[in-house]
Amino acid sequence: MPGWQKLFHELKANNFEIVSVAQDTGGVKDAGPWIKAANPEFTALIDQKQQVTMLYDMVNVPTAVWINEQGKIVRPNEVAYVDNRYTYMHHIDAAPYVAGIRDWAEHGDKSPFALSEDEVRRRLTPETADHSQAASEFGLGEYLYASGFGPDAIPHFKEAQRLSPDNWNYKRQAWALSDAERDYGTSFMKEVVKLKDKPYYTPRQLPDLKKPDDGKPSPPEPDKKNP
Amino acid sequence: MLSGKLLVFALVWLAAMVVPNRASSSGRVVIYDGVTTQVAPAAIESPDLWITTQELTQATRFEVKPQGVCRDELCFPIPKNRKEVMLRQKASVTWFNLSEFARMLRQPVAFDEKHSTWFFGARQAAQNSFVDTLEAPNFTLPDINGTMHSLSDFRGKKVLLLTWASW
Asked: Closest to A17 (Cβ–Cβ): which among B130, B144, B159?
């Protein structure tokens, strides 16, 4: 969060806002200390029911969505790191992404990082029936947990994980609320090892600002192999 | 005479203590659009969730009207062949089958038997509407001080919506 604060401070004059949302069933108790420590100037919200995960069909954190002045999505769900402190784990370099945010803050929809409507549509996939059922199971689990029935929440969290197996938020949040080894027979590290060569985050598709010889940024190149 | 009065008082007091407990233990919970509502115990034998039309409006803000099941400008007509599975008259009370309504709308439902709790999720059509419009789905959430903020408050600005977690 301190990295985001620095970037926000630099870009806030460009009619730019960061709305950060903690996906934490534990609410202020869990997310509060981080927010207090960073004391950001941008908007820092707490989402106990993981509404944003469900609304945007997100599967991981940190995930960002770029929204333009008209309230339209110009870059959908994408891994969003502001610095390289965890790069040794996921091998994602933050620099090209942060350069993209700077370019967008300055140029808005004219930035090559702001995608065309067609390209945004291509990247957005309608939520499947399984994913919406998973969201309901997770929601019911969170309700039971918040009502003091932690053990009764577990079967619903497990069902959400079964229905939406690529959703790390449903896994990691549930494991964090319990003894993962005892109740789920696994742990975050064990699951990461199981990925082998599969990336933890869906690879980003960013335009390369250096490539074209005319000095102008190239338009975003849709990756046909990995839709 | 005095002890008789005391006895009556004690009985009334006991009844007042016991009745709400009993209601909550056999009562049911409906979570709809994130809003939690307690509804009375079932009066219709069914695996589906039957609630009175009054409870329907309390829990979901939907109302049964001649033109269909309506909320604000949204109205879902009930097909003739579904009327019987959706609505039932018992004594002078009209009961509504919320599970059947959800099936009709393709709305996901999660159920916990032990806690008699039903969780109704977002209708798939509503959930996926932003894939066409590209309009960022709105939400309203508290900050650390409990002050509520909506995504739509920032209309007119470029917004980087960023999720993270402590876990």
From this structure: B159
Name every chain A residue with its beta carbon within 8 A of the beta carbon of B127.
55, 57, 127, 132
Amino acid identity, position B125 = A
The pTM of the full predicted model, rounded to 2 decimals, is: 0.84
Domain count, chain B: 1
Q: What percent of chain B has pLDDT over 90?
A: 75
- Check CB contact under 8 Å for A18 and B124: no
In a domain, B18, yes or no: no
- Beta carbons of B165 and A173 less than 8 Å apart: yes
Residue B48: inside a domain: yes
Amino acid at B5: K
DSSP states along A177-198: TS-HHHHHS--HHHHHHHTTTS
Does residue B46 fall inside a structural domain?
yes
Q: What is the ipTM of this complex?
A: 0.89
Write out the residue range of the structural domain in which residue B102 sits.
Answer: 26-123
Phi, psi of B36 (to 5 degrees): -95, 130
